[in-house]
Design a protein that fits this description.
The complex is a heterodimer of chains A (about 260) and B (about 270). By secondary structure, chain A is mainly alpha-helical. In chain A, about 90% of the residues lie in helices and about 0% in strands. Chain A contains nine helices and no strands. The longest helix of chain A is centred in the first third of the chain and has 40 residues. In chain B, helix 6 links the parallel strand 7 and strand 8. Chain B is globular and about 75 Å long. In chain B, helix 3 crosses helix 4, helix 4 crosses helix 5 and helix 6 packs parallel to helix 7. Classes of the chains: A mainly alpha (about 260), B alpha/beta (about 270). Chains A and B meet through helix 5 of A and helix 2 and helix 3 of B.
């Protein structure tokens, strides 16, 4: 009997913790939504965060996008060659990037570079009493720190996704056209023919918009709830990256099912 | 003399197993420097957090400036906090802001003063803590003592009625320690403030305090003027003042397992 109770407790404990975490996260969302007017009045706070999470992610996003596009073109070319349809390589690269790889990989890269930084930054502010100091100065940390980070993430991730896709397509073009000798006109015209702006590009941006909300929210939440120790901050940073990656992949499945 | 702060029958606990404060009664007289002393974990900082509204008492009433903090709205609490300044143990300066911006922070948030006036106020506050000319530096370019003084300048930039100092002397060299003590005393007198110092530094605190509360295990065990505390016969207070190893403050952790058991002798 005791073993059964212990087994139920073992399952119940993480489930309860997860529900409590969802509740706390929901409360945080409500507080952040209430802080949006403050952020809009002090938009320089959002711009500062945009620089940190967006501008400083440009290099990793564009380089990764370029390489992913190159690999896609290389693999696609080898496969398509067997069926004599290398001319659709442009479509293959563009659709793969726009529909799946672009939003997902740019979001995961954003979580690793900016999300972990957001968590560590907030965790350190908590450990060094900077959030408490703000509070006793009658300044709400939610409005001053958390909401600008969330808004910046929401703006940055879709833009980074567009950049990732652009670099990926250029990388694919470089391998397909410049290195493997595919016809330049065929590459672009096939792509133009198969990619729909409303269907593929807009959906890609919607996906990355949702991923942006999810990642920054997780990053802020793990920062706020981190223990004020070196180990606590390190663990919170890891959680941000792991949870973000899992959430992005799961959400991607759901969104793809509805969108395409 | 009126009390600017009154804590009545305060109980506080984070959960059922961890009682931090039990039946604490503290009155802070207006215009005086009141010290809250006691060993680590005695509940001193918790008292400060209750006064600043960072946490709420499980039982009892906290009155600040004549207003009860029980069920107070966020807006009213924010207004009360504008009359408070808090010096945190390690300064809590915003590491992404320059010294100028750190000190200007409350002014920029709560006033519509032009930049030129804010710069003048920042310069005056920095001069008062002896750090004029450090406006452009970042917090990581300052020593611990200097950072504490900048934090002091930031805490008093709104000219608060009440200043609270959380362990202001911890980790300072003797010169910085005396400088901070002198600044606390002079600001309290010159700016007609009320000050609360949470500290376990006997010498520096007794030098500047008017009244002392002594805490142990979440309770007030003694209170009185500095002379009364110095001459008290309470064994716990005497042990603390004399720094004696043996006495009511147990230095050994209360373990369920004996030392012999760990050695495998029992």
């Amino acid at each position: 009997m005791n073993k059964i109770i212990s087994f139920i407790a073992k399952i119940g404990n993480p489930v309860t913790s997860f529900i409590i975490m969802l509740g706390a996260m929901f409360m945080l969302i409500l507080q952040i939504i209430a802080s949006i007017p403050y952020c809009l009045r002090r938009f320089h706070l959002v711009i500062k965060e945009l620089f940190f999470s967006g501008v400083l992610s440009l290099v990793i996003i564009s380089v990764s996008g370029w390489f992913v596009g190159m690999v896609l073109a290389l693999q696609g070319y080898n496969t398509l060659q067997r069926f004599g349809s290398v001319s659709v390589l442009g479509s293959l690269v563009a659709l793969s990037l726009l529909r799946e790889l672009g939003p997902v990989l740019s979001a995961i890269l954003f979580a690793s570079r900016a999300g972990s930084g957001i968590t560590a930054g907030i965790g350190l502010m908590k450990a060094t009493e900077q959030l408490d100091a703000m509070q006793v100065m009658s300044v709400n940390p939610v409005s001053k720190v958390f909401a600008p980070k969330l808004l910046a993430g929401i703006i940055a991730v879709p833009i980074l996704n567009v950049l990732f896709n652009t670099c990926g397509i250029l990388g694919g073009h470089f391998v397909g056209v410049t290195l493997l000798g595919l016809n330049n006109g065929a590459f672009w015209s096939q792509m133009q023919d198969s990619v729909s702006f409303n269907y593929d590009i807009i959906n890609s941006i919607i996906k990355s918009f949702i991923f942006g909300i999810c990642i920054t929210l997780l990053a802020v939440f793990h920062g706020v709830t981190s223990k004020a120790t070196a180990e606590g901050i390190s663990s919170a940073t890891t959680k941000t990256v792991v949870h973000s990656a899992l959430a992005v992949l799961a959400l991607d499945f759901i969104l793809t099912a509805f969108m395409f | 003399m009126q009390n600017i702060i009154e804590l009545k029958n305060i109980d506080f606990s984070y959960d059922e197993d961890r009682v931090i404060l039990h039946d604490v009664n503290i009155n802070i007289p207006t215009g005086k420097i009141t010290a809250i002393m006691g060993g680590s974990g005695s509940g001193k900082t918790t008292v400060l957090k209750l006064i600043s509204g960072q946490i709420s008492a499980s039982k009892g009433t906290v009155n600040v400036f004549g207003q009860s903090l029980d069920n107070i709205s966020e807006k009213n609490l924010a207004n009360i906090r504008k009359d408070m300044g808090v010096l945190f143990q390690f300064g809590a300066l915003f590491t992404d802001l320059s010294i100028r911006d750190n000190i200007a922070f409350p002014l920029m948030e709560h006033t519509k003063l032009p930049k030129e006036i804010i710069d003048i106020i920042v310069a005056m506050k920095l001069e008062s803590v002896g750090l004029s000319g450090t406006q452009h530096l970042m917090p990581d370019q300052l020593s611990g003592g200097m950072a504490r003084r900048v934090a002091l300048a930031r805490a008093m930039v709104m000219d608060p009625k009440l200043m609270m100092y959380d362990e202001p002397f911890t980790g300072l060299d003797p010169i910085s320690l005396n400088t901070i003590a002198m600044l606390i005393k002079s600001m309290n007198t010159n700016l007609k403030q009320t000050s609360i110092i949470v500290s376990h530094d006997i010498e520096a605190t007794f030098e500047i305090a008017d009244y002392v509360y002594f805490m142990s295990n979440g309770k007030v065990i003694a209170h009185g003027t500095v002379d009364e505390i110095k001459n008290t016969q309470d064994p716990a207070v005497r042990q603390f003042i004399n720094g004696a190893v043996n006495g009511p403050f147990a230095y050994k952790y209360q373990s369920n397992k004996s030392y012999q058991e760990y050695l495998g002798l029992n």
